[in-house]
Amino acid sequence: MLFPGQGSHSVGMGRDLALESSAAREVFQQVDDALGFSLSKLMWDGPEEKLVLTEHAQPAIMACSMAVLAMLREELGADPVDQAHILLGHSLGEYSAYCASGSLDIAKTALLLQTRGQAMQVAVAPDQGAMAAILGLDTALIEQACIEASSSGVVVLANDNVEGQAVISGARAAVEEASEILSQKGAKRVVPLNVSAPFHSPLMQHATGVMAKALEQSNFLDPKRPVLCNVDVVSVTDRAMAVDCLTRQIEGRVRWRESIAWLQNNDVSHCVELGHGKVITSMVRRPMKDAVCVSIQGKKDLDQLEGVF
């Protein structure tokens, strides 16, 4: 069971789902109540420039995932999480995975993600950080370029998504220098990302401290189903390990390519993404050609689950 991360948000997200499912509407209401304002209105009506703010985008993406799961529980008359071999989420999606697994309730997850977004936003001064997608190069070459550019500041391989698709993150000058080096090394494309901070880099140290405290105070429970840790690619089954993984994740690399390999090595045959968009499904489908990979966003997608649950 898969949960998307930042970048999967857009104005209108979750609106149709709320119209068709009372269980989904209840999730959106719980998030609104927890945050003290109507995040659902912002999700459905915009404006885009406010929704993309990290403190709003992160709980919004989680809310959509949990609303889809609530709809499935309502329609199936059972909890599909109970049949999942493993749950995993991309970056903030790991919080959605723990919420689905019963470690956190929806209100607490929304508040944690709001705190996470705010802490990541203020960790680095505006315009001092940057991220860039690197297409068509091996990760070893990307890591070498980051080392070569380090005289200009911190720059690291932040997201190792799939073969030939990665993201670097760090100080703006260093990211720009590494991007130039990688272009010269033959990258198919180097795409600067429109993000508000250099996520998954050592520059997020302030946010790590904030989230360590917030997670320790969150009444986090053991997950009822295992969750795959982004930074270590290990199956997590207890609270202490989960809190440690989520704390280190803010500065650590999202090892998504290795996470997909873990699924393959453990004979996972079906992958179901819950939430807005299909980004995670497309990333998983590329290497897992023999697996059934589907994206569920609303009732219109239920027929794709035939034979899965």
In short:
The protein is 46% helix and 14% strand. It is an alpha/beta fold and 309 residues long.
* Strand-pairing-aware structural class: alpha/beta
| Number of helical segments with 4 or more residues | 13
Q: What is the CATH superfamily label of the largest domain?
A: Malonyl-Coenzyme A Acyl Carrier Protein, domain 2
Task: Please tell me what the overall shape is.
Answer: globular
Task: Characterise this structure.
With 309 residues, the chain is an alpha/beta fold. The chain folds into 2 domains: 2-123 and 203-305, Malonyl-Coenzyme A Acyl Carrier Protein, domain 2; 131-196, 2-Layer Sandwich (Alpha-Beta Plaits). The chain is 46% helix and 14% strand. The chain is built from 13 helices and 10 strands. The protein has helices spanning 15-20, 22-35, 39-45, 48-51, 54-76, 93-100, 106-122, 139-148, 172-184, 205-216, 239-249, 256-265, 279-285, and strands at 2-3, 88-89, 129-135, 155-162, 165-171, 189-192, 227-228, 235-236, 270-274, 292-296. The strands form 4 sheets. Strands 4-5-3-6 form a 4-stranded antiparallel beta sheet. A two-stranded parallel ribbon has the order 1-2. Strand 9, helix 13 and strand 10 (292-296) form a beta-alpha-beta unit. The termini are close together. 49% of the residues are buried. The mean pLDDT is 96.
